[in-house]
Design a protein that fits this description.
alpha/beta, two-stranded parallel ribbon, SDR family NAD(P)-dependent oxidoreductase, 7-stranded parallel beta sheet, Rossmann fold
Length: 233
């Protein structure tokens, strides 16, 4: 029997890389999906059984093609971590309709298409996990989040709909609301005055995400918030 397969959509030096490492550590064959394979390819080369795939999360055809390739090369997906979540920042007067749509396509449409690609196999198996990485913006529309907040709100609503629909089939769908600044080299450069405990550590977030996928079905979590202890909320 081969390794279980985990797909991580949205790979960067912070959370995406940490998710890939954590699931590989637990014995998964990990598929790393991102626009280009420059970074994801490097990460995959350090993880046993991992592969990187080019995939634009805003393009349904690209998502479908990538997931088909994953199924052929690694096998049916048992865990999906949807980490794609880019967005344009600006007020309603500053952003364009194209900006608004682009944010929705990555956060909501991409999740919808990716979920459709993994649901059939998970239903056949009678189990599976879909973990969506959300944001506090899904709950409140900041002045400069005119594109990002509505997209994250749509993503959250879709995730809840998936959870209600798929739970009876044994598929655990959960949302992780990330509240805080992720500890990446770029963030450290931008905020050199902040202490270590100001930042959310990607490896710690990855531990929380993996824990969701290991929960017994009698006590599933739908929504989990992660933030550093000093974050104001």
């Amino acid at each position: 029997m081969g390794k279980p397969v985990c797909v991580v959509v949205g790979i960067g030096p912070g959370n995406g890389a940490a998710f890939a490492r954590r699931f590989a550590k637990e014995g998964y064959a990990v598929a790393l999906l991102s626009r280009t394979t420059d970074l994801s390819g490097e990460i995959a080369s350090t993880l046993p059984g991992a592969r990187a795939y080019a995939c634009d999360a805003s393009d349904p055809a690209a998502i479908e093609a990538a997931f088909d390739q994953v199924a052929r090369e690694l096998g049916e997906v048992s865990a999906l971590v949807y980490n794609a979540g880019s967005g344009v920042w600006g007020t309603a007067e500053e952003i364009s309709a194209k900006d608004f749509e682009a944010s929705w396509r990555v956060n909501a449409l991409g999740l919808f298409v990716a979920s459709q690609k993994v649901i059939p196999a998970m239903k056949r198996a009678g189990r599976g996990n879909i973990v969506v990485i959300g944001a506090t913006a899904s709950r409140r529309g900041g002045a400069r989040a005119a594109a990002f907040a509505p997209a994250k709100a749509a993503q959250k609503s879709l995730t809840e709909s998936l959870a209600r629909h798929l739970g009876p089939a044994g598929i655990h769908v959960s949302l992780v609301v990330v509240d805080g600044t992720i500890d990446t080299p770029r963030a450290r450069t931008r905020m050199p005055e902040h202490p270590d405990d100001f930042f959310l550590r990607p490896d710690d977030i990855a531990d929380a995400v993996y824990h969701l996928t290991a929960q017994p079905k009698s006590a599933w979590t739908f929504e989990l918030e992660v933030r550093p202890f000093g974050e104001k909320w």
